[in-house]
What we know:
Layout: E1 2-7, H1 9-22, H2 27-39, E2 43-49, H3 53-64, H4 76-79
Antiparallel strand pairs: 1-2
Helix pairs in contact: 1-2
Amino acid sequence: MIIQWEMTAETALEFFRRVKELKEDTKDARMEILHQLAEEGLMKSVIATDRTLEQIIQDKKKQYGNVLDLTGGKDEAASE
């Protein structure tokens, strides 16, 4: 299951500030910070889904077009 965290730029900066402050950069530590931010009401939305990462990326591409590269450089154009 994938969890989508939607947040403002300010919340994203707060997330990275807490990660840096924690000095333990594991996936579990980051997830705990995201949960804390959600409990504090700083997330716009939190969605759990059974969709694959590729399906989510395709949906976001339809929604936002070519404004954002959500593939992490893994699409065909990046491999050429």
